[in-house]
Amino acid sequence: MAVVGVLALQGSFNEHIAALRRLGVKGVEIRKPEQLDSVASLIIPGGESTTMAKLAQYHNLFPALREFVTMGKPVWGTCAGLIFLANNATGQKRGGQELIGGLDCTVNRNFFGSQIQSFEAELSVPELASKEGGPETFRGVFIRAPAILEVGPEVQVLAECPVPSNKVLASRSEVEDQEEKLSEKKVIVAVRQGNLLGTAFHPELTADTRWHSYFLRMSSSVAEVASSSIVAVGGEDLSLSRQPTIDLPIFQ
């Protein structure tokens, strides 16, 4: 059985491990630098990014995480994990937070608003559908979510999301800086750059495991397992028609 590390400092690491299990893949909790030596790929889950950064500093994880990225091992960041992987982040709390970096993009923390402004949206995902099959859309779950404002030339955009009509930018300078970027009322929410994958939403909170399968195929050590294990475990129904485990407003 393939083994994937899941950073387990805080946030939705259990949900990622459960999604991996449905694909026949073992997810192991990572809390210390030396534990990274036992895995070939890593998921950094969603959660409270400032809290996660403080815990990572406490456990001296940042040097090991940066080395993991620079070695070319696959790393997937969801929501807060996306912020960690970005080279630049805006909208942070006073003093900012330490980043792992490696993903050539600028992320705006809490772009879509507070916890009560969480929502779901149907995203067009042609690359995901091409590689993993299934529908051309994916139901993204956005919880106090970031967004990607700009990307470098080597970054592949995998999904965009409409900007809610009630989106209010924090300052006049943000309005001026982002006016052109948001002219089409869409913002980037999923990207890939080489061994790095980033999503602003939470695939682990849905029954659709295609993003997890897509990530598994990024690692040569687990590609064969991933390609042959997209089946129900113990007879569990993994139909894409199943509803997400949480119920949020639907934003079209």
From TrEMBL:
<feature type="active site" description="Charge relay system">
    <location>
        <position position="204"/>
    </location>
</feature>
<dbReference type="GO" id="GO:0016829">
    <property type="term" value="F:lyase activity"/>
</dbReference>
<feature type="binding site">
    <location>
        <position position="109"/>
    </location>
    <ligand>
        <name>L-glutamine</name>
    </ligand>
</feature>
<keyword id="KW-0378">Hydrolase</keyword>
<feature type="binding site">
    <location>
        <begin position="47"/>
        <end position="49"/>
    </location>
    <ligand>
        <name>L-glutamine</name>
    </ligand>
</feature>
<dbReference type="Pfam" id="PF01174">
    <property type="entry name" value="SNO"/>
</dbReference>
<feature type="binding site">
    <location>
        <begin position="143"/>
        <end position="144"/>
    </location>
    <ligand>
        <name>L-glutamine</name>
    </ligand>
</feature>
<comment type="similarity">
    <text>Belongs to the glutaminase PdxT/SNO family.</text>
</comment>
<dbReference type="InterPro" id="IPR002161">
    <property type="entry name" value="PdxT/SNO"/>
</dbReference>
<dbReference type="InterPro" id="IPR029062">
    <property type="entry name" value="Class_I_gatase-like"/>
</dbReference>
<dbReference type="InterPro" id="IPR021196">
    <property type="entry name" value="PdxT/SNO_CS"/>
</dbReference>
<keyword id="KW-0456">Lyase</keyword>
<dbReference type="GO" id="GO:0004359">
    <property type="term" value="F:glutaminase activity"/>
</dbReference>
<feature type="active site" description="Charge relay system">
    <location>
        <position position="202"/>
    </location>
</feature>
<protein>
    <recommendedName>
        <fullName>glutaminase</fullName>
        <ecNumber>3.5.1.2</ecNumber>
    </recommendedName>
</protein>
<dbReference type="GO" id="GO:0042823">
    <property type="term" value="P:pyridoxal phosphate biosynthetic process"/>
</dbReference>
<keyword id="KW-0315">Glutamine amidotransferase</keyword>
<feature type="active site" description="Nucleophile">
    <location>
        <position position="79"/>
    </location>
</feature>
